[in-house]
Input
Amino acid sequence: MMATGTTARATFEEQGYLILRDLPEPEVVAGARASMARLVDRAAEALLAAGKITDALLSDPFETRLYHLYREQLDNAPKSFRPELHLPELFGVFFHPGLLDVVESLLGPEIRLYPNYTARPKFPDTEAHRVLWHQDGGYTANIAAGDGVDDLRMLNVWSPLVPARVENGCMQFVPGTHRLGVVPHESREHYLEIPAVILAPHVLHAVDIELDPGDVVVFHNLLFHQGLPNRSQQIRWSLDWRYQDATQPTLRKEEGHLARSRLHPERVVRDAAEWAARDFR
Ligand SMILES: O=C(O)CCC(=O)C(=O)O
Output
């Protein structure tokens, strides 16, 4: 794992992101993959019950099964999972103590898991699954009509469940762009996008964020980022989530869940069972 403390903070402040290698332990990653595989089981059962498929593809590997299940009906395939993520195995990811230590060093002691946690099964060559250049703050600005979003103290986290490389659509960041404030975003068919005229001077400096399962990247919510197209034949499975200074409002109807707190320790999610008993709110 990379150094925490002053070096980490300096890197984060300068670049707008921080890569932490080998952070969630192999058993945590295996649990997260197994929990996603159960979501795929459920999808297969639903497709079978609806008469949309005749074969649940039980011997297909995690890396392809969901894609193959929906091959004939890509428009109906899930782009992401969110309320489904209250699974015991994901406690070890979202509430990982080492990760929360880094987050606490950057955000302070009141930490909320922001109500925007997502698993993405990014299919090969599927435009609806390709997240375009944006700042997360651009989405929040859209929701909040510019109400104080420059000041949201929020950290994004992204971690793959399969090796993420340029070929299968790893993330790309433009270092330093978190210092530009919230820039305008335009609506495209599936996602928002930073317009070319704003992006052009910066995109030349984009870097590929190639990570392995167990690696985590923490990034500023104003950093320009995108997911590259998935040119492989397999699904690029990943998780992304956010932490926020819990003394701030979420600017959403959901409140999220406390991950650390000195003010309200009794409200912090304690363990995997409690996480699984809560819901998306
Ligand atoms: O996983 C992706 O391709 C995009 C994720 C993203 O934009 C995010 O985590 O904010």
